[in-house]
Amino acid sequence: MEEIVRVKKRKKKKRKVWKWIVIPIVIFLIILAIFLAYTYQQVTNTAKEIYEPIEDREASDKRDDGHVEIEKSLPFSVLILGVDERENDAGRSDTMIVMTVNPTLGSSKMVSIPRDTYTEIVGKGMKDKINHSYAFGGVRMAMETTEELLDIPIDYVVQVNMESFQEIVDAVGGIEVNNGFPFESEGYHFPKGSIGLNGKEALAFVRMRYEDPDGDFGRQNRQKQVIQAIISEGISLNSVLKLNAILEAVGDNVRTNMTYAEIRDVQANYRSAAGQIEQLYFESGTSSRIDGIWYYLMDEQELETISDELKEHLNLEEEAGIKPASFNRSAKIYFNKK
Fold first, then answer.
1. Which of 46, 199, 291, 296 could form a disulfide with 166 if both were Cys (CB 3.0 to 4.6 A apart)?
2. Domain coordinates of the chain in residue numbers?
3. 28-32, 61-65, 253-257: which is most confident
4. Backbone angles phi, psi at 197, to 5 degrees
């Protein structure tokens, strides 16, 4: 009889133990399900908020099938426009960076286009500084002018408000960059070497121009470093905890012609490529005054070599059935692998 009582007590004790184990797990799963549903809704809302289709833009004639199919995990290109927005003014594309992403190779390539580059402004019938294309015809003219210059399709555009992108840096928890030389800008001191930056510091870091021995080229390289660092932080698992802040900052400061479905496919299938970015550089051109205005004149050989590199990375040479062009060392293109 006593043995039966002891057995019943043990069973009751076990049931209590299991209750205290199972109940927290169930509560955790319920909270997780609510969080996932909430974040899904937040992500879709942000994707809809930043989506802006390019009106009257036809499929690119630089690609055989016109439009890249992201759902098939094919290489694509994106033009990153850092826009200096002003009151009562269309603004200028202060930053123009082209990025190609190849999921098969697990790599991306990034090149800055000097904003003073003298080139044909597509749709305007004239030559001018490439960053004026945005002022003349918005995102569409900037995309088409960049396509013509590099002779590659520009599949997508990401437009960032440079005045407010510091919010994005703060949202990902700050970034780390490698500074080539010490300098001061907007009240901040930036020592040489690896440094951490918050949003305001990052903005001052990329704005500095006149103290840089490389002038605007040095500024472009700092811009690419900051963008690469934001991408690296953005795809890290730690950023899940900062999701709301990131989504709010992106919703306020970013616009793109990439749909939610395409963003979802890129996040799922292109993450490894976004983590390995190779930097390409335009640096062999010359500055010249034309009709009293300073322009940057591209070195034609360097331009052709970089164009070929981007085409090969986009698999366009294979698409056309052409053997990829050999890499031309004389063009002085350098890579900075992360």
1. 199
2. 1-50, 57-331
3. 253-257
4. -130, 135
Secondary element (H or E) of residue 309? helix 300-313
Tokens at 317, concatenated: 């040479």
Task: Give the number of other CB atoms < 10 A from CB of residue 240.
Answer: 10
CB 213 within 8 A of CB 221: no
CATH homologous superfamily, domain 57-331: LCP protein (3.40.630.190)
Structure-block tokens of residue 152: 């590659």
- 5-28: average pLDDT: 58
What does the pLDDT look like over 301-335, one tens digit per residue? 999 999 999 999 999 865 544 444 433 323 333 33
Asked if 282 contacts 288 with a C-beta cutoff of 8 angstroms, the reply is no
Is residue 28 pLDDT above 80, yes or no?
no
- The pTM for the full model equals 0.77
CA dihedral (28, 31, 33, 36) in degrees, to 10, reads: -120
CA distances from 85 to 80, 91, 99, 114 (A): 15, 5, 22, 19
pLDDT at 303: 96
- In 3D space, the residue among 138, 137, 143 whose CA is nearest the CA of residue 62 turns out to be 143
Tokens of 176: 């780390």
d(Cα 45, Cα 101) in Å, to the nearest integer?
A: 25
3-state secondary structure of 103: coil
Give the model confidence (pLDDT) of 167-196 as tens digits: 888 888 899 999 988 998 888 999 999 999
**C-alpha–C-alpha distance, residues 176 and 179, integer Å:** 10
What average pLDDT does range 274-281 have in this prediction?
84
